[in-house]
Amino acid sequence: MAWATILDYDSGMEKRFPNGNLLRLVTGDITSIPADAIVNAANSALAGGGGVDGAIHRAGGPSIMRELDRIRASAGGCPTGSAVATAAGALPARWVFHAVGPVYRDGRRGEAELLASCYRTCLALAEERKAATISFPSISTGAYGYPIEEAAPIALREISAHLESGTGSVREALVVLFSKSDYEIYGLALAGLGGEQLE
Ligand code: ADP
User: Among 32, 43, 86, 136, which one is most buried in terms of CB atoms within 10 A?
Assistant: First the structure.
């Protein structure tokens, strides 16, 4: 059941897997693109912040933070490398998955595995809810300082592995890059995985 489709975006870059599943890169604002599930780059306190987190709360409205308040009260927050789900308020989605990426220090403190774990957790949350489409921002590469050249292949490998295995509900994943230069870096990483530039 595809509640929303993100197939209408005609620019960007994509990789289609033999089973028909699709991974697509676009530039834009993740809060304005419909998807069943939108991923947020949150912090472990689930307290809201700047960057994509601020944009999601602004566009989604206060109901998202109210739900996070309840999660915080019962669970105390969310560990790095994991994610929690809320409804999506006024966003063009059913759910927001608030993923807590690692703060990058020197690359030797498990950052790569923690980053990969964010993507895996969100994809598992999507499967539990039978979501068909999911959109991701570039987790950890803003305020958390993860070098985007290192983060891009990790993100795309995890998403690709999930789409390729292909027996679940997720048919399409979108990575929404906030700048042309971020898009180009992800594009190079996707080309390394066999992705194609679109007209
Ligand atoms: P983190 O703390 O995980 O690094 P940030 O929100 O600071 O999270 O940055 C993550 C990425 O999200 C950055 O590349 C940033 O440019 C991008 N970003 C910020 N706002 C948006 C938005 N509205 N849509 C998509 N990406 C966004």
Answer: 136
